[in-house]
Specification:
With 365 residues, the protein is mostly beta strands. Helices cover 14% and strands 35% of the residues. The strands form 6 sheets. It has a 5-stranded antiparallel sheet, with no helix packed on it. The chain has a 4-stranded antiparallel sheet with strand order 6-7-8-9, with no helix packed on it. Strand 8 and strand 9 form a beta hairpin. Helix 2 runs antiparallel to helix 3. The longest helix has 14 residues. It is globular.
Length: 365
């Protein structure tokens, strides 16, 4: 279901010229800018700047794409509002990348709260998408040895240090990525990287010379007991294979710190250890802004999921409480949660599905 075309007239200066909704440019012209403005249009353009800023603030809390549309209406509205920078308040957190830019195609995003779709053309010179982080994209180009952090809705971009691991190994898997905003001026990008049986977490700020290894508290040669991760409210969390949840702490050195422990130990008895257990952190979508986390435990036998359990993560009590009913949420493992009532093709479905099937289920075209 494509989002309806835009009724707003766009400006000559556009913040995200490549984005499209319903087959139309996101900030495309709805009329000829040079045409004589009607009296009503002039009245709208003459709104008090303070009022425009208040409306823009409310729209930004809802979705950055609505903020972009407002700024595209006319020059006075753009002058009254701030241009979108690579800042957390402009991150498109509710937009999930479905398909990356391949062979010049536009990347397709879905809004997990509303069910809307959006097409965005990522500049090919930025390289390939290797991860999604808090609505932004991490891109890598092995021909120019560059990495970037890109907001796909505003096209704000920043350079990241190139990771040497892409020069040493052919098959590098980024299992999760996130952005930490600890109140400082610069954001910190986090990558969970797996190469074969080796796994590690790295962090870097835009403009840094190199990536820093996050101390996971493991001995040399020991198999790391974590996989995946999720950003919530400016912090990055990682689930251990024991069911505990850790947080990446940057100071005084990058390291993992416990924030919650899973008291339920049935996974020990079921499979005789952790070999057949996987844990995933996903968004709970509990409020209008999609905040909160769920911890999903999968018990695997012969590489098949024998049982899935879902726990509500409470950071204040530092506990995980099992959920018997996940409501209308549809979970695509390892990292996507959708509201079933927003997607007609998911009507009547429930439970958890493979993330590889998401485009088929929600009607990708």
């Amino acid at each position: 279901m494509e989002q309806p075309g835009l009724p707003l007239a766009a400006a000559a200066t556009m913040e995200a010229p490549a984005a499209e909704v319903g087959g139309q440019p996101l900030l495309a012209m709805a009329g000829v800018l040079e045409a004589e403005e009607s009296t009503d249009q002039k009245k709208w353009a003459n709104l008090f700047p303070e009022l425009v800023r208040e409306v823009a603030k409310d729209l930004l809390r809802s979705d950055v794409t609505e903020y972009i549309r407002l700024r595209a209406v006319c020059k006075p509205w753009r002058s009254a509002t701030a241009a979108a920078q690579l800042e957390p308040r402009f991150f498109p957190r509710n937009w999930q990348l479905l398909r990356g830019n391949m062979l010049g195609e536009k990347s397709r995003f879905v809004n997990v709260l509303t069910g809307a779709f959006l097409k965005v053309k990522i500049p090919p010179q930025y390289g390939r998408v290797i991860a999604c982080a808090d609505g932004c994209l991490v891109l890598e180009d092995n021909t120019t040895y560059t990495m970037r952090l890109l907001n796909p809705m505003t096209m704000a971009v920043a350079d990241l240090p190139y990771h040497y691991i892409y020069l040493s190994f052919i098959h590098v898997d980024v299992t999760a990525a996130g952005i930490i905003n600890d109140g400082g001026e610069a954001l910190t990008v986090v990558l969970c990287i797996t190469v074969g049986d080796m796994a590690a977490i790295y962090c870097a700020k835009p403009g840094d010379f190199a990536w820093r290894l996050v101390d996971a508290g493991i001995e040399e040669g020991e198999v790391p007991m974590f996989e995946g991760g999720l950003t919530v409210d400016g912090s990055f969390y990682v689930p251990k294979r024991t069911g505990d949840v850790l947080k990446v702490v940057l100071h005084p050195r990058p390291r993992l710190a416990y924030v919650a422990r899973l008291q339920d130990a049935r996974h020990w008895n079921r499979v005789g250890g952790f070999a057949g257990v996987r844990f995933f952190l996903i968004r709970s979508l509990d409020d209008t802004h999609g905040g909160g986390m769920l911890l999903v435990r999968g018990l695997y036998e012969n590489n098949q999921a024998a049982q899935m359990d879902v726990f509500q993560l409470n950071l204040e009590s530092r506990r995980c409480t099992e959920l018997r009913d996940i409501g209308d949420r549809i979970i695509f493992l390892p990292s996507l949660t959708l509201r079933g009532d927003k997607f007609p093709t998911l009507h009547g479905m429930m439970g958890m599905l493979s993330g590889d099937d998401v485009e088929m289920y929600i009607g990708y075209s």
